[in-house]
Amino acid sequence: MLSIKKRNQLELDLSLEKLPYEIHSYSSYTAFYYPRNIMENKPLEQSSRWSSSCGDEMQYIIIKLESMAIVRHVCNLKKFKVYGGLTPNNMIELLSSGLRNDEIPETFRLKHQANNVILPCQYIKIVPLVAYAPNFNFSIWYIELKGIRDQEVVQKVYYDFITYRENEAIRLCLKHFRQRNYLDAFNSLQSRTNLLLEDPFLTELYTQLVMNGDFQVVEERVSNALEKGLFEEYIRSHAYKHQWTKIDATNIDGDSPCMRGGHQMCIDVEAGCIYLLGGWNGADNLSDFWVYNVNTKIWTLISSDTKVQGGPGPRSNHKICLDPDNKQIYVLGRFIGRDMRANANYDSDFYRYDIICNEWEQLSENTLLDGGPVLIYDHQMCIDSEKQILYVFGGRTVHPDAEHFYYSGLFSYNIASKKWKLIRSDGNDINDRIQFKSRIGHSMLLDPNEKLLYIIGGERDNKFLSDFYIYDINADSIYDLPADYAAQDDQDEVSMQRTTFDINTRELFVLAGLKDKKDKRDKKATLVRNSFWVYDLKMGKWTKLYQSENFDPYKTSDETSEPRPRYAYQMVYDSENKVQYLFGGRTVETEVSKQRRLDDFWKLQLVRPKSGDLLRKIKFLIRKQKFREMCLEGDSIKALKYLQVQLAQVVDHTNEKESSEFYGLSTSLILGDETNDTFNERTKLYEKLLEFFPEEMKQPKGNLIDLINIE
């Protein structure tokens, strides 16, 4: 599987071009809304669009590229799908997505690889599925395709694609021959083609299980596979199970952080400490500084007013981040309310706290004068501890006139030299191929190993941004990834996301609130549900872990099973123990008088199957087959002893289904096994074991006989 950096480097090396095309075929059209209208970009002309004659799911339009190409993007339907292929009758799905209901053009990344093979295309089919208004016909205003036209490159890709298909056809034949025990045909074909059906490790497993029936060696091979990490992909394919737990913790005096929103938190995973600074309690900005010890479950008040210790004054909507190597915390930014701006100080002060020495240091009275950002709030900040570089992106500027503001760009701060650098201003950079806008309410996380910044979602000018970018620090380049979690779900609005990153599993976790109205300025718009997502960077896939039921925004009782949706909360992640921690925030009520700040503290544990449990499950499958074969041999005493000892050792007796299956095996001692085809039973077991191994190691998924059509 190509890494993100390698995939993106391919894009840099092979520049994308606009691909000319013609209309190949279509389902229908209405009046003067011809299919050819999508070839012209005339957004101000009402008639410049294709419109279907009806709104059923049989509508489509197929376009033919001037020449074969590698198609990467389709530009400007609530839901639609895109298919592509070398012929109009044999296409695969390249995209399933939807458009926002606004006038802004959108770009979508098409699937262009499968099984590490790049897909050449000459035909593209767009299938509208759902319109924004009921009983409306589908309309498409404009479509532009971008991809690689260089025929030397495309022909090489075409050759590789055809070769791959030829090889897969041969491997399907090999699979069929081995399943049917046609070993002469299998060996002859493999010898002539010199193709492997599967990884040699699995071939050896097949030999020991199916041909030799050496179950002890099979168990040893499986244990060896576990040690090699071969089951990691299978474990990752299982969705996490989640469990929220409310934490009731105080300091030795019985105190804990008060109700607040707009506070900031960071976590020192190594020390097991969560730090909390400032916030807004509904009347005043706060400057208290707390630490929660994960191990002792005790809060400690470090300072009731950090300004007294030479640190930052009261503030909210600032940002803090921890340098885990040097045990230091950096603080930047703050929000100034409209009613406080007349006599406010607009200098962008910048602080550092030394955890070991318990000392504050002001790094700058005003970062603007040092070449850094002006006073901003709702930005994001993270640190490359190895290189001693801080990164700050986005946020909105604070100005005496509340209507006068702009969005801040991407900055870096060299801690050693105390130098700021503007990496990207708001908007497009001349070196970037994609539109990269500054924003607020987004997430930014650093991968310190790959030197990548992940930037997800946010909002700008009261519009939610469902995008996902990577900034490659070393290459100074920006890439887009498949649209974020919001685009995967049929939701009108997402708000107040918080994202954490597990560097070991390379997964991004997003907790977000889902709104029931499109326009956030609509006073009836209410945040009603929690939604938790994970993005697997290795698999390139978003998965929704759970979505809560609707919450009554005026409910006043404490939640017992999970935290209510909220604004202005904070969440940090203990990657060592796989636990998310959430504190505080503001309730959802649209009437200001009914809003409440919160002081509840929660932890979210995410659990997947453990490798030890997986090994036990696999051994249960293997020993079941051995027991059945022992029953066929006729030594009932020996088989019974094996059932009671070796097989019982690998049964999860708390699992009702597994326990019932175990006790049902005893009937084989009395009645015998209904099936007496050892070869087929072993083959079925082998193919069951294949489910636990990585795709690239296994025989093809399909079956040869399924390719035969009977007409």
Automatic annotation (TrEMBL):
SUPFAM superfamilies: Galactose-binding domain-like (SSF49785), Kelch motif (SSF117281). Keywords: Kelch repeat, Repeat. Transmembrane segments: none annotated. Residues 17-200 form the Muskelin N-terminal domain. One of its GO terms (cellular component) is cytoplasm. Coiled coil: none annotated. This is 13027_t:CDS:1. It comes from Funneliformis mosseae. The lineage of its organism: Eukaryota, Fungi, Fungi incertae sedis, Mucoromycota, Glomeromycotina.
